[in-house]
Specification:
six-stranded mixed β-barrel, about 30% strand, 3 domains, single chain, 13 strands, TSP-1 type 1 repeat
Length: about 270
């Protein structure tokens, strides 16, 4: 029996990968004593391992090759860049970031996960600062039927003959601004205007050169920038006012010619 066990131990190298153990099973009492005993192989009770070092140390589990190989970390693709967060919280230089997430954790000595967050410098355009003379509360509107009044007054007023005024008037031009009407005061009930000044309607507001002579920026008073919201008031009817949003501007423009499909008004 000792010789048999010695022969079996010669398979120690094999047992490093497929651990074996020799054991005996006694026969029942009713068998003859001279009958040979059966022998079988079974896994040893020793501990085995499932990491990257077990191959070198010779203590891998028997199913290592198909159960225990190392697994590297896997991540998703980058998500979209988030909005720019300014350093001062308002505008200017800031940072923005994008992220990704882990789809498979590293196991058994696999490659660790790469960074999940990426950042870069960005810039947010600061709003234009208006001069004090351009900051007004309400834009005044006038019925478009008065669109020839200023040009007639200019010919009869000596003020327009002053060299400085005359020079500025030569450089000034007509321009049109499209505004979308928002909230409207319920006092705008006059039949002449309630079909033009109502929520959702887009109107054309014309700025004439004579209305810009007292301005330093060649714009009508209370004219906004595209996308801005502001207040308007109609001259004439009592308490006819509301809010609007600026859509766009056309230079060298008369509302009656450039936008005949829109309801026209004059910016005072």
């Amino acid at each position: 029996m000792t010789k048999t066990l010695r022969n079996i131990s010669e398979y120690s190298i094999l047992s490093q990968h497929i651990p074996l153990k020799v054991s005996t099973t006694p026969l029942p009492d009713y068998y003859y004593e001279e009958e040979p005993q059966f022998m079988y192989l079974e896994a040893p009770p020793t501990e085995c391992y499932c990491d990257e070092s077990c191959v070198a140390l010779g203590d891998c589990c028997s199913d290592y090759t198909f159960v225990c190989p190392r697994r590297d970390c896997a991540v998703s693709s980058w998500g979209p860049w988030e909005g720019c967060v300014a350093d001062d919280g308002i505008c200017g230089i800031g940072v923005q970031q994008r992220t990704r997430y882990v789809t498979q954790k590293a196991e058994r000595g696999g490659k660790e996960c790469p960074p999940l967050k990426e950042m870069r410098t960005c810039y947010t355009q600061c709003p234009k600062r208006r001069s004090l003379d351009d900051i007004t509360t309400v834009a005044l509107l006038l019925d478009y039927r008065h669109n020839q009044t200023r040009s007639k007054m200019a010919r009869d007023n000596i003020y327009w003959d002053l060299p400085s005024v005359h020079e500025k008037l030569k450089e000034a031009t007509y321009y049109c601004v499209k505004y979308k009407i928002g909230w409207v005061n319920r006092n705008c009930w006059h039949k002449q205007f309630r079909t033009h000044l109502y929520r959702g309607n887009t109107i054309c507001a014309e700025c004439q050169p004579e209305a810009t002579l007292h301005r330093s920026n060649s714009r009508c008073a209370s004219d906004l920038d595209d996308g801005e919201q502001g207040f308007w008031k109609l001259i004439g009817p009592k308490s006819c006012n509301g809010m609007w949003t600026r859509i766009g501007r056309d230079d060298n423009c008369h509302c009656s010619q450039k936008h005949p499909d829109l309801d026209p008004f004059l910016l005072v």
